[in-house]
Amino acid sequence: MANSTPEIKYTQIFINNEFVDAVSGKVFPTVNPSTGKKIVDIAEGDKADVDLAVEAAKAAFQRSGKWRQMDASARGKLLYKLADLMERDVQQIASLESLDNGKPYTNAVYDVHGSILCLRYCAGWADKITGETVPSDGPHLTYTRKEPFGVVGQIIPWNYPLLMLAWKWGPALAAGCTIVMKPAEQTPLTALYMCSLAKEAGFPPGVVNMVPGYGPTAGNAITMHPEIRKVAFTGSVEVGKMVMAGAASNLKKVSLELGGKSPLVICNDVDVNEAAQIAYAGVFENMGQCCIAATRTFVQEEIYDAFVQKASELAKGRKVGNPFSQGTQHGPQIDETQFKKILGYIETAKKEGAKLESGGVRVGEEGYFIEPTVFSNVTDDMTIAKEEIFGPVQSIIKFKTLDEAIERANATNFGLAAGIVTKSLNNALTFSNAVEAGSVWVNTYLAVAVQAPFGGYKQSGVGREMGKEGIEEYLETKTVSIRLPAKV
């Protein structure tokens, strides 16, 4: 059952399997976005704490250490154990996630189960990471080995705190790496709770380390640290560029999952009600705080007016309120900064000539709630059609032909996801082949699977998470050649 006041046991930095205060003694508040009030103070890590975490992670990765000597299958068993402990504590974890992030409790439960699924998928990979024999010329036996990078830094966002932790822990631990992670300063509670479960599961000291803090201090210390071999970041393009620049300090391998301005193309051969439902789910999921949100909804002109009417009805019917109340579909935005930013985009859209069909205003006097918002008559040059809003704003754009829609869909620096709703196989294949995006969905949206790689084209990212490709992001390839005895 949901608990709107879950017990908060863990507020300190986690290093070497112990919870400790920050070296500086500083703390920072984590805030309940439903009220705007402080939940609890969290230890504020910075460079000194990252240095200690890296030291612990490096020691755990020593060749003679327990983690490196552990059978690959045993690493998998630890991940399975961690997933089992999460299953035991679903209600506590989901309550912490909902309290700290603001997402409806039912959505938080879904995220916990998705995270469990991710860890179990990665656990299965642990003893299936193999190299190859290579038919090289000459009297040589040549083969490749897949080896873990070593100490990896990971920086996760606030929109899916638990899922993004699982997406990064799972592949790194399956590969045999050790981790120094920074959770988003807005949402550290579930990350710290997960550290307690990792210790309970039996991960050796130093394998998992967690340093809550701010990006310019703790985050920058991770990206710049000379002993970290790889850094993985999920967040905005702006910060992603800073992470890549920092990683250049010692040429760390980088994987980045960044922003999006994803197009969803609705063709005129579809059932309008069904298409509107797909688009509605695609844009308002997680209060619009979703990197793959279908914020550019392209609708063919013959069904445009009918679609706009249905989209507006759906948005008006979405229940906004307390994340712990039964039936709530839509919680608050993450914090005051994001709240004001979204309202600013809405005002800009109205000034630039977009037609407000529904929403667009604050809900209540407490917390950071915004009504699901629908704009029609949006053109490609408008700010809301170009910039990532990261909020509950649907921009409905008219198009004539599929070729035109494809060109306009690709006219962006982003390329994370895209979708099409059509009854035509030709339309579906033409669009899927031509659109510049890492994930393409046909007659559905948000169909992310742990078994399939996820990532972006262009400025939406570098590398992939999940699937086989996600595991490989944490592996080096070593080539070994052995001279064989000459034939007599």
What does it look like?
The protein is of the alpha/beta class and 488 residues long. Helices cover 39% and strands 20% of the residues. It is built from 16 helices and 20 strands. Strands 14-15-16-13-12-17-18 form a seven-stranded mixed β-sheet, with helices on both faces. A six-stranded mixed β-sheet has the order 9-8-7-10-11-19, with helices on both faces. It has a three-stranded antiparallel β-sheet with strand order 5-6-20, with no helix packed on it. It starts with 12 loop residues before the first strand and ends in a 5-residue tail after the last strand.
Side by side, the strands of the main sheet go: 14-15-16-13-12-17-18
Percentage of residues in DSSP E strands:
15-25%
Task: Find the structural class using helix and strand composition.
Answer: alpha/beta
Quaternary organisation of the protein chains = single chain
Radius of gyration equals 23 Å
* Major sheet size, sense and barrel closure: 7 strands, mixed
Poorly predicted runs are none
Number of helices: 16
Principal-axes geometry comes out as globular
Distance between the termini: 76 Å
- What is the percent of helical residues? 25-40%
Using DSSP, what is the number of strands?
20
Mean pLDDT: 97
Question: What layout of secondary structure does this protein have?
Answer:
Elements: E1 13-15, E2 18-20, E3 27-32, E4 37-43, H1 47-60, H2 66-69, H3 72-88, H4 90-101, H5 105-125, E5 133-134, E6 140-148, E7 151-155, H6 161-175, E8 178-182, H7 189-201, E9 208-210, H8 215-224, E10 230-234, H9 237-247, E11 253-257, E12 263-266, H10 272-284, E13 296-300, H11 304-316, H12 336-351, E14 355-358, E15 373-376, H13 383-386, E16 393-399, H14 402-410, E17 417-421, H15 425-434, E18 439-442, E19 461-462, H16 467-472, E20 475-483
Helix pairs in contact: 1-8, 3-5, 3-6, 3-7, 4-5, 5-6, 8-9, 10-11
